[in-house]
């Protein structure tokens, strides 16, 4: 009878792992280099063009000059977005665009939105804190007075009949509902 087979104990390393030579390492690095460079460039672009929060604080009474008005997006006649932050124009109320109560409110809301876009595109503006001390509305939007050369853009919209002066409540834009 023969003896049962017994494996020999492992000597040295348990698993075979080939050593990488200098040529193999440099070849692998050359293969990955374009991908790493692209990833680095993408990270640099994200950091350079990330949306930064507005430097608007409650105590900044003088306001913030905004020269890059191309970065301002008009949402409706009294709400804008600047660098990822929504801002409600504090001194006015314009007709609703998203859920108007009547056809005349929808038409006036679209006209107020178009006119605000024109006013903002005309040049640099200043975002100043609301005069009544409020910093945010109930929806979390910053309340600011948007002005150019010391004159509120909201006043312009009120004079043109596209906005009501803000008195703490919304007034109706539909005929006969005052």
Low-confidence stretches: 56-60
Number of helices: 3
Order of helices and strands: HEEEEEHEEEHE
Largest sheet: 7 strands, mixed
Strand content: 15-25%
Structural class, from secondary structure content? alpha+beta
Shape: elongated
The span between the termini is 112 Å
Mean pLDDT: 80
Total strands: 9
Radius of gyration of CA atoms, rounded to a whole number: 31 Å
Classify the helix fraction into a percent range. 25-40%
Overview of the structural elements:
This protein has 178 residues and is α+β, with helices and mostly antiparallel strands. 30% of the residues lie in helices and 20% in strands. The chain contains 3 helices and 9 strands. The strands form 2 sheets. Strands 1, 2, 3, 4, 6, 7 and 8 form a 7-stranded mixed sheet that branches. Strands 5-9 form a two-stranded antiparallel ribbon. A hairpin with a 2-residue loop joins strand 2 (72-76) and strand 3 (79-82). The radius of gyration is 31 Å and the shape is elongated. Residues 56-60 have low confidence and may be disordered.
Gist of the model:
The protein has helices spanning 22-49, 103-121, 153-159; strands at 64-66, 72-76, 79-82, 85-89, 92-93, 125-129, 142-148, 151-152, 164-165. It is an alpha+beta fold and 178 residues long. The strands form two sheets. Strands 1, 2, 3, 4, 6, 7 and 8 form a seven-stranded mixed sheet that branches. It has a two-stranded antiparallel ribbon with strand order 5-9.
